[in-house]
Design a protein that fits this description.
Largest sheet: none
Order of helices and strands: HHH
Structural class: mainly alpha
Oligomer: single chain
Helix content: over 70%
Number of strands: 0
Length: about 80
């Protein structure tokens, strides 16, 4: 499943990459190279990060489900 970003988010990432490369490596790249780099990162690294996020969400949901009995339990027939 390809990761697609809203245009505004992609543009902010491109600007961030351009700024980072300029400040850290003294490399001034253009918009096209920044966009290609964002696309590469999304295709190559994005799935790993996405899978980690899904795994974290699954773990948290499992914890919440296991706590349901303690949190949502009401004693029955008190008389």
């Amino acid at each position: 499943m390809p990761i697609e970003l809203p245009k505004e988010t992609s543009e902010r990432l491109q600007a961030s990459i351009r700024r980072y490369l300029l400040e850290q490596w003294d490399q001034d790249i253009g918009d096209l190279k920044a966009r290609l780099l964002v696309d590469f990162v999304l295709k190559e690294i994005g799935p790993s990060l996405y899978n980690l996020g899904v795994g974290d969400a699954q773990t948290r949901i499992a914890e919440m489900v296991s706590e349901l009995d303690a949190v949502c339990h009401e004693p029955e027939m008190r008389y």
